[in-house]
Amino acid sequence: MDLHELSAWQVAQGLAAKRFSALEVTRACLDRIRSLDGRVKACLTVLEDRALEKAREVDGALARGEDPGLLSGVPVLVKDNLCTVGTRTTCGSRILGDWEPPYDATAVRLLKEAGAILLGKTNMDEFAMGSSTEHSAFGPTRNPWDPERVPGGSSGGSAAGVAAGFAPLALGSDTGGSIRQPAAFCGIQGLKPTYGLVSRYGLVAYASSLDQVGPLAREVGDLALGMDVIARPDPLDATSCREERPRFLDAVHTDNLKGLRIGVLGGFDDSAVEEPIRKALVLAARYCQDAGALLSEVRLPLSLEYGLASYYILAPAEASSNLARFDGVRYGSAEEASCLEDLYLRTRGAGFGPEVKRRILTGTYALSSGYYDAFYLKAQKARRAIVREFRQVFGQVDAILTPTAPTRAFRQGEHLDDPIRMYLGDAFTLPANLAGLPALSLCAGIAEGLPTAVQILGPWRKDQRLVRIGVMLERAFGAPSVAPLGKEESR
Ligand code: GLN
To answer: pTM for the complete prediction?
Structure first.
């Protein structure tokens, strides 16, 4: 196995056993980025010198016998909407120019303190609005399994980077599916934690009541490792859960699902769900049963009927307010202007891409007086109903299996002229955000060259349970491997 193929776990263990150095692992990943990212375009910024310097520091600390930290020497990638001190943070937008944050996001700081090596910042849909990473101002990222296809979004750069073997672990953010859907499209694992479990401090806000930071990796065990580092109470985020978190790594050491009641989503029109994904769901259910779980069918009629419509009111409404801060005065680029209003118009006109403008317009409209009750308030009521629906269903089952997305990775450009079609792909992921629940996307193998996936949804703060189920399913389906990119020549 080449060093770039190792999981975060294997890196940590190999370093402790002195089988290789942090410098060697870091170099292997940087080489991989250098030779293949021209084709994948997962990274917007690569921090080569700083990464090598940090790797040397870690090796020095290990040689002195110091406590290495949970992620010591593990190369990581971070989505470009998480602030990194002194390193350009673009959010996939032009409007921020070369803005360098004066501080690290809490999740980034915790990664660094645990000894992780930050290799770079990853491409994303502008301000995390999208499902394909085609809405990046810096051009699209490509799917490492098939460069003609999208990697999903909005954390497409993080997912593609992990799938391509640029790093074993990455951070993304998930407002309506942006960790899980790209993980599904790129054949890796991704966790959207319970709202409040990971601090949002330093995450550039899209829709604050829905945003969550979380890990992407090729192994569920690495998601757990990442969570044990980043899931901490944070006084800098008022919505951060105050209680201590149970250890995620404990959930990795499991060998059965005895006593767990698992509901399989049913009772909906699945004609839009591709055949290989339907099959993966059936298989996942069978594997759970083989591991000792009790299966039943569950229905989520309100979530499926109203989730999409309410999300696409609430998220743009919050975004229209959050994005008001990009005015050409406080951050990044500004256009030449004759007066203040002209400055706003020109800066925002030139700085935001079409999808962001569409969201700002929708959101502002939904919040405007006269329409507030008809749109925003109604969407909030639908959200409450969805929360109640989950509460009731989780009285009967301990977890729910659903598809992550109805399709596998689609072709570049396929949905670009049809925003509604793009939005429809989020139907299974966004209910978890509306209800603040944890959800894990798990790779269910490769069908006709493209990754398939299922999603496991859990009750509030039962993230560890998802890890436990994920570990068992990963054993049954087989852990994802690095995409066969760069091997074409030798085949
Ligand atoms: N695709 C959804 C959207 O465009 C979700 C994005 C996200 O989770 N950041 O809003």
So the answer is: 0.97
